[in-house]
Amino acid sequence: MLTIFETIEKIAIKIDHAIKTEDLGYSDTENTSGEDQLKLDVKSDYIVEEAFKNVSIVKALVSEEKEGVLALHDEGKYTICYDPLDGSSLADVNLSVGSIFGIYEGELKAENLVASAYVVYGPRIELVTATRDAKPKHYRAQEGLFNFISEISLDEKGKLNAPGGTQQNWSKVHKTFVDGLFAEGYRLRYSGGMVPDLHQILLKGGGIFSYPGTSDKPNGKLRQLFEVIPFAFMYEQAGGQAISNEGVRLMELIPAHPHDTSPCFFGSNYEINKLKEAYGMKV
Ligand code: AHG
Ligand code: MN
Ligand code: MN
Ligand code: MN
C-alpha cells in the first residue's frame, strides 16, 4: 500500500499548487453526475491519472470526473476510485476542499475496499490514511513532506452536528432528529465540503455528519465508490459507525454503477445509535 499512499502524497502537493495558482472558472463540460466541471476538477483529475500511470499495481481508475473505468496496468491488483477535488465549488470562496481515494481489490463493492485516504487542502495540507489492520493515521505536510501526527479515534459521544442536504427537503423524521441534537447542545459545523466537515468531526472527538435521502435526491447526493465508502471505512476504523437510511452498514454497499449515490450517516456510536432509534432501525 505504501506505493499508493506515497503517490497520493505527491498528488496532494500538486493539487494544492493547482488550487493556489490555476484559474478557478468553469470548463465547458459536465461530469456523469450532471455537475458542471470546474477547470480545477479537470486539472486535478489529470494530476491523479498521470501519477497512477507510473504505479504498476494500479489496474484501473474510476473518477468522479470520468464516465467509466479507465484501465491502466493489466498486471495491476488494485482499482482506485477517487474524487480528485471534493467540494471544488468552495475553492473560489477560499474554503477548504479535499481529495478522496478508495482502494479496492477485485469487484467494486464496499467489502473489497482494502484501504482509503483523503487529503484536506486548507490552511495546511493534511492526509489521513486507513488500512484494515489499524486506526486511521493523520499526517501533515511541512515543506512538501508529510509528517505523521497521530492515530485517530472517535469518542463514544461527540459535540458536532454536520447536517447536509437541503433542509426543506428533509423527511419529518430527519428534521426531528437534527433539531433534537441541537436541543441537546450540539454545535453546527457544516461547510458544504464533506472532506473538511468529516475531518473536523474525526479530529474533534466526534459527533455526526448526515447527508440523508431528500425529496429532491431520494438516494442522497454523495457517490458510493469514491465518497461514501472511503469515509465509512475511516469512521469504522476510528471506532465509529457509518450507515445508510435503511440502517445498513455503508461497508456493505454494492453499487450497481460507478456513480451510484447513497444516503449516508457517519459518526460516533452515541449519535448513530440515536439516529437508529429516531428512524426506527434496529440498534
Ligand atoms: P463535489 O464537489 O466533489 O461534487 O462534492 C460536493 C459534495 C460534498 O463535498 C458535500 O458534502 C456536498 O456536496 C454538499 O452538498 P450540498 O451543497 O447539497 O449541501
Ligand atoms: Mn462534483
Ligand atoms: Mn465530491
Ligand atoms: Mn469532486
UniProtKB/TrEMBL annotation:
Domain Fructose-1-6-bisphosphatase class I N-terminal, residue spans: 5-133
Keyword Cytoplasm carried by entry: yes
Cofactor note: Binds 2 magnesium ions per subunit.
Compartmental location: Cytoplasm
Pathway assigned in UniProt: Carbohydrate biosynthesis
Keywords in alphabetical order: Carbohydrate metabolism, Cytoplasm, Hydrolase, Magnesium, Metal-binding
Residues where Mg(2+) 2 binds: D83, D86, E227
Sequence ranges assigned to domain Fructose-1-6-bisphosphatase class 1 C-terminal in this UniProt record: 155-279
Cofactor(s) listed in the protein's UniProt record: Mg(2+)
Pfam families named among the record's database cross-references: FBPase (PF00316), FBPase_C (PF18913)
Binding site for Mg(2+) 1: E64, D83, L85
Annotated positions binding substrate: D86, G87, S88, S89, Y190, K221
Family matches, as PANTHER family: FRUCTOSE-1,6-BISPHOSPHATASE-RELATED, SEDOHEPTULOSE-1,7-BISPHOSPHATASE, CHLOROPLASTIC
Subunit record text: Homotetramer.
Family recorded in the similarity comment: Belongs to the FBPase class 1 family.
HAMAP family, alphabetized: FBPase_class1 (MF_01855)
Protein name: Fructose-1,6-bisphosphatase class 1
Species: Sulfurovum xiamenensis
